[in-house]
Design a protein that fits this description.
With 111 residues, the protein is an all-beta fold. Helix content is 0%, strand content 51%. The chain has strands at 3-7, 10-12, 18-25, 34-39, 46-51, 57-59, 67-72, 77-82, 91-97, 101-102, 106-110. Strands 2, 4, 5, 6, 9, 10 and 11 form a seven-stranded mixed β-sheet that branches. It has a four-stranded antiparallel β-sheet with strand order 1-3-8-7, with no helix packed on it. The protein starts with a strand and ends with a strand. 28% of the residues are buried.
Amino acid sequence: HVQLVESGGGSVAAGGSLRLSCVGSGYSDSSACMGWFRLDPGKEREAVAAIDGDGRTYYAESVKGRFTISRDNAKNTLYLQLNSLKTEDTAMYYCAKWGNYWGQGTQVTVS
C-alpha cells in the first residue's frame, strides 16, 4: 500500500530555514503530481506547493520566493525547502500524492 513519510520539521527562530522530506513507497507512478499542505489549528488547510512529473511547480502566494519544492523521482522523495520562515508559517506540514494519499505530517514551529 502507498506510504508517505515526512521528516525534517522542528522549531526554528523567525528568519531561519528548514528542509522537509517526504519518502514514498508502495507505488510505481513515481512522477505523479505531489504537493505539500499545511494545517494550523483554527485555520483552513492550505496548499503550500505542488510539483508535477515534468517539474512544473505551484506555490501559494504566502510562500512564493521563500519556499522551494523539488523531487527526486529515482528516490521517490519530495522536498520542501523553507527559507525566511515567519511565525505564521507555524503548522503541521503534510505531504500528499495524486490519488488522495497523505503522510502523517511533520510539525514546523517558528518563534
